[in-house]
Specification:
eight-stranded antiparallel barrel
């Protein structure tokens, strides 16, 4: 136990001793970020979504490719798992990081166009949604190639199947970012 504690102190000490510029995102960087969290439907069309759970566990992966350090193309695959229900969400968009801060923590904002297909495991209607997701978060670079972060997002969609109607969900995610 003591060795693990000393190893953690060593990593934190190395991170604190390096210049903050070592922990920024540069043009051409590819970042991979596994995420986990919760998704909660806050607006549902009850007639069409009676089989849809109120919320679920979100697991997924994000990819960011940086154009110029601050601005990045982002893509996400984020399935939401609930008892007896699976929803697979894909997103494409842009992310802007405040790399100008010169600190190991980087706040960011992102916007994505999303598409989701979900339904009950077994028999039931498939649900198809298209929409927009806005999010904000912060990544803390523990090392040049490793960051931990939190993100909060809101997704507004229009359900096309089985019946048309609006849906809105909120998400809270934690992620670990690796630079490739």
């Amino acid at each position: 136990m003591k060795r693990a504690f000393l190893a953690v102190l060593g990593v934190v000490g190395l991170a604190a001793s390096a210049p903050a510029a070592a922990y920024t995102v540069r043009p051409g960087d590819l970042l991979v970020r596994p995420v986990a969290g919760a998704s909660v439907n806050v607006v549902r069309f009850a007639g069409a979504t009676r089989a849809t759970p109120q919320g679920g566990m979100l697991l997924g992966v994000d990819l960011d490719w940086s154009f110029d350090g601050a601005l990045a193309f982002t893509a996400a695959l984020r399935p939401v798992v609930s008892p007896g229900y699976l929803d697979v969400n894909l997103g494409l968009g842009a992310k802007y990081r405040l790399v100008q801060l010169g600190a190991p923590f980087l706040p960011y904002a992102s916007a994505m166009v999303t598409s989701a297909l979900g339904g009950p495991v077994g028999y039931g209607d498939l649900h198809w949604n298209e929409g927009l997701r806005l999010a904000g978060g912060v990544d803390y670079f523990v090392m040049r190639d490793l960051a931990v972060g939190l993100e909060m997002g809101v997704e507004a969609t229009h359900m096309f199947s089985p019946m048309p109607g609006p849906e809105v969900s909120t998400e809270l995610l934690a992620g670990v970012t690796f630079r490739l």
